[in-house]
Amino acid sequence: MDNLFSEGLTLMAFGMGFVFVFLTLLVFATGIMSRLASRYLPEPAAKAPKARPQPAAAGTASNNDELVAVITAAVHKYRK
Known about the structure:
Helices cover 78% and strands 0% of the residues.
């Protein structure tokens, strides 16, 4: 029983050691690739957003009033 337990502990130590080494190498490799990508592939310059046409001011008041009325009616209908 003692031999089986020690073999289990040895296998666990090797497995955990392997995972630790692999993850450490993965962190370093990711960092190196990040530096290389930022050096050789810089981000493109941001483009200015296109100006959208402004809606007419005369029609917005009636549209908002109608929208408020519709929302109010829906709330009253489903609140009961």
